[in-house]
Structures are given as C-alpha cells and as structure tokens.
Amino acid sequence: MKGFQLVFSTLQSRKHPSGESISHWLVKTAEALDIKGVTLLNAAQGIGRDGKLHSSSFFELADEPLEIIMNVNEEACETLFALLKNENLGIFYTKTAIEFGTI
Q: What's the whole-model pTM score?
C-alpha cells in the first residue's frame, strides 16, 4: 500500500486547548479516525524549533521531547491534516511518501 509516514514532534509539556497533552490528544485523534499503528516515542533530548536544547531529566519530565509516528494512506492523511489545520496547534511534522504493508 502506498501512503505516508507522518512524524509529529512535540514536548511533554505542550497542551491542547482542552488541557490534554498534545501527544495524547494526537494519539486519541488518530484512533478516532481509525488510523492503525500509531507509535509514541520518548526521546532523551532534542533541539526544538526554538533552537533550544530540550531534555528529560530525573527531576523534570515536562521538557521531554516526544515523537508520534504513524503510517497512513492518502485519504487518512488528508482527513487528519484537515482536522489539524482547524485545530491550529502549530505542531511540527515531517511527511514522507512510503510503501507499507504486512508480509
């Protein structure tokens, strides 16, 4: 199947206007859109769009970088991006054309 790998990058501390973390909101939204195979990864550190180093530490996890990865077909991608545009979250993403399936 042809589609896209979407990778969304955010921080543990970023919140959706509803008060829920952006990462959990995005995973729940993907589930509601029947997108399968969503993965949330915690990173030790990263440099954000602001040019600052963000990292998790023993004392503070709010600055922990997160990635949400999903492989979607073109229709699901269009639906998700239309919804994200309406939410106006300002979340960074990469979108790569891929072929995926089960063998």
A: 0.83
